[in-house]
């Protein structure tokens, strides 16, 4: 989810006509398994009776906060271009690159 939000997922609005350009998943790019490196999932063998009626804890979404910033910093280190609005797409990078002599 973090990589998709940082690199490809964007809700595009036509500001002239006032409607969503990508109004369905056909034009909304989300990463697939081949786009993301292997991740190790670890299940904790403990319950937390105070966290929820199911006595389960989740830590998925809070980890997304730093993904976009980490990817943007890695791209800036590699290219020298700082993109400040997600998603970081090629058109935003090319616009910031210096002209080649």
Which descriptors apply to this entry?
3 helices, two-stranded antiparallel sheet, Aldehyde Oxidoreductase, domain 4, 26% helix, 101 residues, mainly alpha, 4% strand, extended
List the helices and strands and how they pair.
Layout: H1 2-7, E1 13-14, E2 19-20, H2 67-79, H3 90-96
Antiparallel strand pairs: 1-2
Q: What can you see in these coordinates?
A:
The chain has 3 helices and 2 strands, in the order αββαα. It has one domain: Aldehyde Oxidoreductase, domain 4 (2-Layer Sandwich). The chain has a two-stranded antiparallel ribbon. The protein has helices at 2-7, 67-79, 90-96, and strands spanning 13-14, 19-20. The radius of gyration is 19 Å and the shape is extended.
Mean pLDDT rating: 84
**Cα-atom Rg, whole angstroms?**
19 Å
Q: How is the biggest beta sheet arranged?
A: 2 strands, antiparallel
* Beta-strand fraction estimate: under 5%
The strand count comes to 2
Query: Which CATH top level class fits?
Result: Alpha Beta
**Spatial arrangement of strands, main beta sheet:** 1-2
Domain module count? 1
Assigned CATH superfamily: Aldehyde oxidase/xanthine dehydrogenase, molybdopterin binding domain
CATH fold name: Aldehyde Oxidoreductase, domain 4
| Tally of individual helices | 3
- Regions with little confidence, pLDDT below 50 for 5+ residues: none
Helix content: 25-40%
CATH architecture: 2-Layer Sandwich
